[in-house]
Structure to design on (344 residues):
């Protein structure tokens, strides 16, 4: 048995030395030290040995097991080290080489315009309010002095979902909801940006979906001059300090009196050109004094409180400020167009 153990040791050490990978080493471990391995098979015959031989053979068997185990561990460590070195060589990265450019996106032009307008009005003490895009007929029309069958409803060709539900045609319902929530007990100074929807044919200047930003101020002793002063500050901040504004009479069911606001053309400085159709002025928004009936329907005493409201198209402001000639550019996701305004 002594000779058998020595022969197993020599055979195992030679085989382990020739192993070329971790799988081969694992196979050697099973072959010589496993439950059915060569060493285990020999040791099963120790019962036939005399009492004097057993300690000697037992000690030898332990020495052989330790020798084979150490050889397996050493070979495994060597193979792992060689594999790591090979990996490091094949995966070496030259950190001095220039990297791939990282393409960084930016804010959409409409988002930049919205944030710019919001910052301006927040600086003037306004709150930013939001409301649902799926609105009721009551808040979209009736609360704004547009009862059913009112002819002015035709001014806003509406997407109706049911007889009472619709896609809002303006952000004015947010104003109505805010006034109703305050129940005539406190002043209001707010703007409400958001998407609106109208049944319109898409072309260079029209879209069935667009964005509005409307403003509302309700307090004691509010006059039309307050509206004009506010819009004058807005025009100068958005289009340049040299811009002038003018108010023209108009009609909106929820304001009385109502006005359209024009800003002097920045291309010709009011002298007249093709951009302003040779008038020297460009229309940018509408507004007026809140109709007493609108105040009363929301719980405000129109003999004590007055207010003004205004509304502007976000796309129109962006088109005028940056010279965009087609509203569809905002929605077609053409990277060539959008990338021009990453710093806008």
């Amino acid at each position: 048995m002594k000779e058998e153990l020595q022969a197993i040791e020599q055979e195992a050490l030679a085989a382990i030395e020739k192993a070329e990978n971790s799988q081969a080493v694992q196979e050697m471990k099973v072959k010589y030290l496993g439950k059915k391995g060569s060493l285990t098979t020999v040791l099963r015959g120790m019962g036939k040995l005399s009492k004097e031989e057993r300690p000697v053979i037992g000690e030898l068997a332990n020495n052989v097991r330790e020798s084979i185990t150490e050889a397996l561990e050493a070979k495994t460590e060597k193979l792992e080290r060689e594999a790591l070195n090979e990996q490091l060589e094949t995966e070496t990265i030259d950190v001095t080489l220039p990297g791939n450019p990282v393409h960084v996106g930016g804010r959409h032009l409409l988002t930049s315009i919205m944030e710019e307008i919001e910052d301006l009005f927040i600086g003037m003490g306004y709150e930013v309010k939001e409301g649902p895009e799926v609105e009721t007929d009551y808040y979209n029309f009736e609360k704004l002095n547009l009862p059913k069958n009112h002819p002015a409803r035709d001014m806003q060709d509406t997407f109706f979902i049911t007889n009472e539900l619709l896609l809002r045609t303006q952000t004015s319902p947010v104003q109505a909801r805010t006034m109703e929530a305050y129940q005539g007990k406190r002043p209001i100074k707010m703007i409400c940006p958001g998407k609106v929807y109208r049944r319109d044919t898409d072309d260079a200047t029209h879209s069935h979906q667009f964005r509005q930003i409307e403003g509302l101020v309700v307090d004691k002793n509010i006059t039309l001059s307050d509206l004009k002063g506010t819009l004058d500050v807005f025009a100068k901040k958005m289009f340049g300090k040299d811009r002038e504004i003018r108010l023209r009479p108009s009609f909106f069911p929820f304001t009385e009196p109502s006005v359209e606001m024009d800003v002097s053309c920045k291309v010709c400085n009011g002298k007249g050109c093709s951009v302003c159709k040779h008038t020297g002025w460009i229309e940018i928004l509408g507004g007026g004094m809140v109709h007493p009936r609108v105040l009363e329907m929301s719980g405000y005493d129109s003999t004590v409180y007055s207010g003004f409201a205004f509304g502007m198209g976000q796309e129109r402001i962006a088109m005028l400020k940056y010279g965009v000639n087609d509203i569809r550019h905002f929605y077609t996701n053409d990277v060539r167009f959008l990338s021009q305004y990453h710093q806008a």
